[in-house]
């Protein structure tokens, strides 16, 4: 039996007549009769007896109808599932992001997106930017966020925001009286540095070296959020990305712009060799809307 035969057989069984089935399906009565006759030839047994212009289902038809109903329930489930996919009421995303974003501003963005689409779920994987790119190419992620430049073969790149570095000071620090800070201001200051591989640290050290300043690093930390905590403990001044610094302002830290401007792009990566799902496209659009107009000077 093919699907059309099942559909017509079901319509005849539920309406108890060829006329009713034809009306329900929007086809002619002869078309229904012809399809039933072909179905009986294909099956090799009669499904209806014709008695006084009435159709009487055979026991075989009654048994067959139960199985056809099960099949149509399955089709209805598939139809609902497909409709849910279209309406983003079903689906799962796997997002890769740096540790600093995952521990700071990103959970709020993810929560906002999932509140808009309660049928979706999301896995957040934290890793360094290079691992995010590699995992995308390998098919382990649907999309990824990176803060620093990474090899982009087989990946589509889209800059979400240019994130500048800001100086983080403890309350009451003498330099807090200045509206912005530069390399000369850090000459005799203890510094809380980020990891040696961090691009912000490398660029800060290059600026200090250009001014003949040897950095006085008292402690270094792997994450910008940890650096902010160490600043509040009196360990020195830190230079971190503005997004993390703003996330940590409730600790009591003070933020000051740094000149010359040191900035890195926050970039959205998606694979070029796999089509994006509706959920991926919607989350990407949500991220872009979140950061639209967010490039602004750091607050004093």
From TrEMBL:
The keyword rRNA-binding does not apply. CDD domains: PBP2_LysR_opines_like (cd08415). InterPro entries: LysR_HTH_N, LysR_subst-bd, NocR_PBP2, WH-like_DNA-bd_sf, WH_DNA-bd_sf. Belongs to the LysR transcriptional regulatory family. It comes from Roseomonas mucosa. GO terms for biological process: lysine biosynthetic process via diaminopimelate; positive regulation of gene expression. Transmembrane segments: none annotated. The lineage of its organism: Bacteria, Pseudomonadati, Pseudomonadota, Alphaproteobacteria, Acetobacterales. It comes from the Bacteria. GO terms for molecular function: DNA-binding transcription factor activity; sequence-specific DNA binding. The keyword Chloroplast does not apply. This is HTH lysR-type domain-containing protein.
């Amino acid at each position: 039996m093919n699907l059309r035969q099942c559909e017509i057989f079901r319509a005849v069984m539920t309406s108890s007549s060829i006329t009713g089935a034809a009306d329900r399906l929007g086809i002619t009565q002869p078309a229904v009769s012809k399809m039933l006759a072909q179905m009986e030839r294909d099956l090799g047994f009669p499904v209806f007896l014709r008695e006084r212009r009435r159709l009487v289902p055979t026991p075989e038809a009654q048994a067959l109808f139960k199985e056809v109903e099960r099949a149509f329930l399955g089709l209805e489930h598939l139809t609902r599932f497909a409709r849910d996919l279209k309406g983003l009421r079903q689906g799962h995303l796997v997002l890769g992001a740096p540790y600093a974003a995952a521990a700071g501003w990103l959970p709020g963005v993810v929560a906002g997106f999932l509140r808009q689409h309660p049928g979706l779920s999301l896995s957040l994987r934290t890793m360094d930017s290079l691992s995010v790119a590699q995992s995308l190419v390998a098919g382990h992620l649907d999309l990824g966020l990176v803060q620093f430049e990474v090899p982009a073969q087989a990946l589509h790149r889209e800059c979400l925001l240019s994130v500048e570095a800001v100086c983080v000071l403890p309350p009451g620090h003498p330099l807090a009286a200045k509206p912005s800070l530069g390399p000369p201001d850090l000459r005799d200051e203890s510094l809380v540095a980020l990891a040696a591989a961090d691009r912000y640290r490398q660029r800060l050290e290059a600026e200090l070296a250009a001014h003949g300043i040897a950095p006085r690093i008292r402690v270094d930390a792997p994450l910008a959020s940890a650096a902010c905590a160490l600043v509040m403990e009196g360990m020195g001044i830190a230079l971190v990305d503005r997004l993390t610094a703003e996330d940590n302002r409730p600790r009591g830290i003070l933020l000051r712009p740094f000149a010359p401007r040191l900035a890195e792009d926050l970039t959205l990566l998606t694979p070029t060799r796999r089509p994006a799902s509706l959920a991926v496209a919607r989350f990407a659009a949500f991220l872009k809307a979140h950061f639209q107009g967010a490039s602004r000077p750091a607050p004093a």
